Amino acid sequence: MSELLTHYCCAVNSQTPSGRARPLPPEERRAALITATLALISEHGIKVTTRQIAEAAGVAEGTIFRVFPHKEGLVRVAVETALDPAPLLDELAALDLETPLPERLTELAAILQRRLTSIFNLLHSVGMHGPPEGSSGRPTGAGGLRPPNEEIYQAIVRVLEPDADRFRYPLSEVARLLRLLTFAGSHPRISDNEPLTPEMIAAVLLDGVRKPGPTEVARPAEGSGSGDHAHHNRPDRS
């Protein structure tokens, strides 16, 4: 969403020498309307008016209806745009794979948490409990996974891959556990409005909540495998 706001600010501040806003090309006008809508519904919810949107986007109110059939259509497209996983995937792709695992996992959790928090806030503002039908979040396929989710899982696995031998579970399962813990630890109701920090998410995922015993270590040493060592560090279920 921040990328859209940056684009919107640049578009609105583009003025002619007379001080009037430059006419925007159709795609930029559409982007400006979407971004203005996202900024306003975070404050006003679905009560935001087309007049407010037009003023924020620097266009005439009638311009909205030349681009979108009605306000509801604009709000829907704005929400779908905010759910686009592309910015998240770009952030994950930019992570340095040579960063030590604990720090890399913390950065990974922070990126996922920012994404989830922005979505929670947006859906709350528009009174939704999940992505709109037909959006990029619509479940598809026999496995029930949404296509964007598959891309996100693959991106997380790529970030974890350099340390694959340090996990006792397959990377696909580690990625799933990370998302589950980050989701639960970031949701305001599940976390009782006390969200987990990215550092805590990473620490719990790597080390659990039990202190290591006198003959144990918190996690495998650099370069060690996950075989017998992981077995000896398995939590006591007795």
Please give a structural write-up:
- With 238 residues, the protein is mainly alpha-helical.
- The chain folds into 2 domains: 2-82, Homeodomain-like (Arc Repressor Mutant, subunit A, Orthogonal Bundle), CATH 1.10.10.60; 86-232, no CATH class.
- It contains 11 helices and no strands.
- Helix 2 crosses helix 3 (50-57), helix 7 (101-125) packs across helix 9 (171-186) and helix 9 (171-186) crosses helix 10.
- The longest helix has 25 residues, at 101-125.
- The protein is elongated, with a radius of gyration of 22 Å.
- It starts with a helix and ends in a 6-residue tail after the last helix.
List the helices and strands and how they pair.
Elements: H1 2-12, H2 26-44, H3 50-57, H4 61-67, H5 71-82, H6 86-93, H7 101-125, H8 147-160, H9 171-186, H10 198-207, H11 228-232
Helix pairs in contact: 1-2, 2-3, 2-5, 3-4, 6-8, 7-9, 7-10, 8-9, 9-10
Given helix and strand content, the structural type is mainly alpha
How much of the polypeptide forms β-strand, as a percent range? under 5%
Shape by Cα distribution: elongated
**Quick one: how many beta strands?**
0
How many DSSP H or I helices? 11
Q: Whole-number average pLDDT?
A: 81
Major pleated sheet: none
- Termini separation comes to 47 Å
Considering DSSP H and I runs of 4 or more, what fraction of the residues is helical?
55-70%
Features:
Arc Repressor Mutant, subunit A, mainly alpha, 11 helices, 0% strand, disordered N terminus, 238 residues, elongated
Write a brief structural summary.
Helix content is 57%, strand content 0%.
